[in-house]
Write a sequence for this structure.
């Protein structure tokens, strides 16, 4: 199973880790921590050394209540960092954005994956991804980041999200994006209540059985805080538990802040499910 991402074919035969690198002042977990280019590049090298196969660079917070960032500001944050990573690290780089101009600049700087919480629905986004032959992650979100957690509602949360992802996949295929370039993300915490998130986690095999590999991102999220009653800096073990659950449910990519421990956790689960790596 290969994920086709421009000049890279990423092997998904075993689950792998996408390490989060936010260079924003207001991200929910690490806002401001890697705002300087030197600090961000150092963290990128650390993420790679801890075992991540992909570094996901973000210059716009999508936490609940987050406001839109001007395109010029987002570009000034992500482009120099992507250029620096591409020049010094042999790793797949993902751009976490919904703006086509940022996607294009990130691709020119060395990224090969577009990770979009709006599932490439912005005008021109699909055409750009097709032209660049980028790997794409289509995520489900109910509403907008600023308001998505106010009153999320579904009649059938698994069915509605599955239908959305399949519909957006068809739109991507019609735009010329290769089937092998698409992965799905149910969007934990993006317009979902605690019960919605728990249902999605229980039903992960249904998402894994859809027409694209499955990416799961629950690292440090509020679902863990609500289950355990713990703040952000005490959610590592809960996150590792959910990462292991996700892999056992069929996820092929785990997006996380806690790269080293998560790599160990999913490698252990993979050894049980698939045997030792040869």
């Amino acid at each position: 199973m290969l994920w086709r991402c421009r000049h890279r074919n990423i092997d998904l035969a075993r689950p792998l880790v996408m390490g989060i690198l936010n260079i924003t002042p207001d991200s929910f977990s690490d806002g401001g921590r890697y705002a300087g280019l030197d600090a961000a590049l150092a963290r990128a090298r650390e993420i790679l050394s801890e075992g991540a196969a992909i570094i996901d660079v973000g210059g716009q917070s999508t936490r609940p209540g987050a406001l839109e960032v001007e395109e010029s500001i987002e570009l000034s944050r992500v482009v120099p960092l992507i250029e620096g990573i591409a020049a010094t690290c042999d790793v797949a780089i993902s751009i976490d954005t919904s703006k086509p101009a940022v996607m294009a600049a990130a691709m020119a700087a060395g990224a090969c994956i577009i990770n979009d919480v709006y599932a490439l629905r912005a005008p021109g986004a699909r055409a750009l991804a097709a032209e660049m032959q980028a790997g794409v992650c289509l995520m489900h979100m109910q509403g907008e980041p600023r308001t998505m957690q106010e009153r999320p509602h579904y009649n059938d949360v698994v069915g509605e999200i599955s239908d959305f992802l399949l519909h957006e996949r068809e739109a991507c295929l019609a735009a010329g994006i290769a089937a092998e370039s698409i992965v799905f993300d149910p969007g934990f915490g993006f317009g979902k209540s605690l019960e919605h998130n728990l249902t999605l986690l229980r039903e992960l095999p249904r998402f894994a059985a859809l027409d694209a590999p499955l990416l799961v991102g629950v690292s440090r999220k509020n679902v863990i805080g609500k289950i355990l009653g713990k703040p952000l800096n005490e959610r590592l073990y809960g996150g590792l538990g959910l990462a292991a659950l996700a892999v056992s449910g069929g996820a092929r990519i785990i997006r996380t802040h806690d790269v080293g421990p998560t790599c160990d956790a999913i490698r252990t689960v993979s050894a049980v499910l698939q045997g030792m790596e040869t």
User: Anything to note?
Assistant: The mean pLDDT is 93.
